[in-house]
Specification:
- The protein is of the alpha+beta class and about 400 residues long.
- It is about 55% helix and about 15% strand.
- The chain has helices at about 1-30, 35-50, 55-65, 70-75, 85-95, 95-100, 110-160, 165-185, 230-235, 240-260, 305-310, 325-340, 385-395, and strands at about 190-195, 200-210, 210-220, 225-230, 270-275, 310-320, 350-355, 370-375, 395.
- It has a five-stranded mixed sheet. It has a four-stranded antiparallel sheet with strand order 1-2-3-4, sandwiched between helices.
Length: about 400
C-alpha cells in the first residue's frame, strides 16, 4: 500500500510539473505577442516578494548567482526565470511555485514530497543543460579547428598558385637592398615583381635608367630570401644586347620578305643573329661565324647590313610541289636579290620546300614530301652552277 502511495505521489508530482512547464511555455509564447499581461503579473508578484523580504535587485541577483539586469527583466515581465530558479525563488520567499506562476497568493500549499521531486527534476534539468552546453562547446571547438585547418590549407594552396602580397612586398624591398649593396645606391631601380609558380618564387625586374640593355632579374623566395640573379648573363654576358639585335634584325628581314611575297606569304620566315661560342657547319660544308660578347657594347646602335652579312641567318619555309634543285636555286636567287635591294644581307640561309599535295602517298600519319638546304652560304648564291651546288647540299625526305 505504501509503495502504491509513493508511486502515486511521484506520478502526481511529474504530472503537475509537466502542467507547470507547459504553462511556462504558454506564458513565454504569449510574451512574444502583444498581450504580456500574465508575464507582467508574474513580474510584479516577484517584485512584491523581493520587497517583502527586504532585498534589493542586486542582493537577490548575488544570492541566485545571476545579474541585476536579469532580475530586473523578471520583474518587468520581459523574461521568466528558469525552472531551477523558480524552485529556489519559491523556497527563498516561502511561497508555492504555483503562486509565482499564477502571480498571486494561493491558500493551498505544495506538499514536501512534490517539492522534493520538483527539486530533483530541476537538478536533473540543470545537469542536462550543462551537459548539452558542454557538448555544444566541444562541437564548436572541433568545427573551429576544422575550419582553421581548411582555411590554412586554402591559404597555402592560393599562396602556392598565385603568391601573396606580403611576399611580393618583401621581395621588392629586399631587391632594393641587394641592388644598392651590389651596384651603389640609386644605380638600379626595381621595376616590377612577378610570381613564378613553377619555382614558387618571385622574379623582380631591375632596370637602369637610360640603359635598356642593363635590365636583369633577381629571384627571391616566399620569405623574401635572396636566391640568385642573372646580371652576369643578361648584362655582363651581353645577352640583352644579342636579344635586341635578333629582334631588330628579324624585323628588317621579315619586312623585306613581305614585299617579295605580299599576300602569298611563306609558311615560316624569320631571321637570327648567330652569337656565342662554338662552331657550326652548313649543309654546303661552310663554317658559320658567330658574334662574340666582347665585340658589342651595351645600348649600341647596329648597322644590320654589316651585322647580317657577317652573322645573319635567314630561315624560309614555302609550299611548293616542285622540290627539285633547280626550283630551289631559283628561289634562293629571288630571295637574295629581294633582300639585297632592301639593303638586307645574310651570312647563310635555311630554305625548306614542302609538297602538301603528297600527303597520303606515304601512308597515314607519314606526312608529306619535303626538301631543303641548311645554312647555305650567301656567297654561293649566284646563277652559274647554282643548281649543282644546291643539289649537292640538299636534304630531302621523299616517298
Amino acid at each position: 500500500m505504501t509503495g502504491q502511495f509513493v508511486s502515486y505521489s511521484v506520478f502526481t508530482a511529474f504530472s503537475r510539473f509537466a502542467s507547470w512547464k507547459n504553462r511556462i511555455k504558454i506564458l513565454k509564447l504569449e510574451a512574444k505577442g502583444d498581450d504580456r499581461t500574465d508575464q507582467q503579473k508574474i513580474g510584479a508578484f516577484l517584485r512584491e516578494l523581493r520587497r517583502e523580504n527586504g532585498l534589493t535587485q542586486e542582493q537577490l541577483a548575488q544570492k541566485l548567482n545571476v545579474t541585476g539586469r536579469t532580475v530586473s527583466r523578471w520583474e518587468t515581465g520581459v523574461n521568466l526565470p528558469d525552472l531551477s530558479l523558480l524552485v529556489e525563488l519559491a523556497d527563498s520567499y516561502g511561497v508555492d511555485i504555483r503562486e509565482i506562476i499564477d502571480g498571486e497568493r494561493k491558500s493551498e500549499k505544495m506538499n514536501t514530497g512534490t517539492k522534493e521531486t520538483l527539486l530533483k527534476v530541476s537538478d536533473y534539468a540543470a545537469a542536462d543543460k550543462k551537459r548539452t552546453v558542454k557538448k555544444t562547446k566541444r562541437r564548436i571547438r572541433v568545427l573551429a579547428a576544422a575550419l582553421t585547418v581548411f582555411a590554412v590549407l586554402v591559404a597555402l594552396t592560393l599562396n602556392f598558385l598565385f603568391g601573396n602580397p606580403l611576399s611580393k612586398a618583401m621581395a621588392e624591398r629586399n631587391a632594393e637592398t641587394v641592388l644598392d649593396f651590389r651596384f651603389g645606391r640609386g644605380v638600379y631601380k626595381v621595376s616590377r615583381a612577378a610570381y613564378w609558380i613553377e619555382d614558387a618564387e618571385y622574379f623582380v625586374t631591375c632596370e637602369k635608367a637610360g640603359s635598356p640593355d642593363s635590365t636583369f632579374t633577381t629571384n627571391f623566395g616566399m620569405f623574401g630570401n635572396y636566391r640568385y640573379d642573372n646580371h652576369d648573363t643578361r648584362v655582363d654576358g651581353k645577352q640583352n644586347v644579342f636579344d635586341r639585335m635578333r629582334r631588330e634584325y628579324n624585323a628588317v628581314v621579315t619586312a623585306a620578305m613581305e614585299k617579295l611575297y605580299k599576300e602569298d606569304a611563306p609558311n615560316v620566315c624569320f631571321a637570327d643573329v648567330l652569337t656565342g661560342d662554338g662552331e657550326e657547319t652548313g649543309s654546303a660544308g661552310n663554317t658559320l661565324s658567330r658574334l662574340q660578347a666582347d665585340e658589342v657594347e651595351l645600348d649600341q646602335t647596329f648597322d644590320y647590313t654589316e651585322i647580317g652579312e657577317k652573322y645573319g641567318e635567314v630561315t624560309v619555309m614555302l609550299d611548293d610541289a616542285d622540290l627539285s634543285a633547280e626550283r630551289m636555286a631559283s628561289l634562293l636567287l629571288e630571295i637574295r636579290e629581294t633582300l639585297n635591294s632592301q639593303g638586307v644581307r645574310f651570312q647563310a640561309i635555311n630554305l625548306f620546300l614542302q609538297d602538301r599535295s603528297s600527303v597520303g602517298r606515304r601512308g597515314e600519319g607519314n606526312g608529306y614530301d619535303a626538301a631543303g638546304v641548311c645554312d647555305f652560304p650567301c656567297g654561293l648564291i649566284y646563277e652559274e652552277g647554282l643548281a649543282d651546288r644546291v643539289g649537292q647540299a640538299m636534304l630531302s625526305d621523299r616517298s
